[in-house]
Amino acid sequence: MHKARRVASRLLDGLTRLPLLHTPWSGEAERLRQPVHAATFVVLDLEMTGLVPRRDAIIAVAGVTMRGERILAGRCFEAKMRPHLPPEEDAIAVHGLLPDETATHDDPAESLAAFRTFCGDSVPAGWHVGLDAAFLDAAAQRHGVRPWPRRTLDVRGLHLALRHRLPARAAALATKDADLYAVARVFDIDVADAHDATGDAWLTALVLQRLLVHGDCGHMTLGDLFHLAATGLHELNGATAMTF
Q1: Which CATH class for the 2-15+26-235 domain?
Q2: Which of 21, 37, 128, 190 has its CA 20 to 30 A from that of 208?
Q3: What residue spans define the domains of the chain?
Q4: Its GO biological process terms (predicted)?
């Protein structure tokens, strides 16, 4: 599923998200000057019925809050939602969610509204977060939920940009092999509980924590961090890196 997410995310990277589906931060210029150690992130992961945001649905969402390099273990979110379409076979194989099971999940509009409140003005972060952001945007429009902030932090891109600052094992990992689980393993993070939204959100938060520490990112600004992640995605996709 992560390989499929990577392909779908690459198709979305570099595309402008529709302006009606996202919202700027209040005082955005000031926020971009905020030091990373004082910034709040929600590291998120989704499970979906497929990989097409306008057609497919979110069936699970999880978020883990970080303040700078610290994971706030008491500030987490998880929900499972009823889809308007049954899951595709790949999603069933990866997540083990059968159509009969998803039919008993929570109302998607209520769950998404609760998650939007949980996120607030925090920076949404994730592994290949462009795909997650596209699904959240489509779901916000479908269910009448307040849009998410348009600035997102791609942890995959940040890893690629910071490789030269990482321990030797992490720095030596080939780009083609550097999926979430491989990067976690080189940081000696246990991946046994991953493969669902909650497990992958925690795994991504732990990887982001290691990147911020080893990359000495605490005193950078948020703008610097976004630029680094965009530079990493430029290397990955051959797309034009965004500037801030």
Answers
A1: alpha beta
A2: 21
A3: 2-15+26-235
A4: DNA metabolic process
Length of the chain: 244
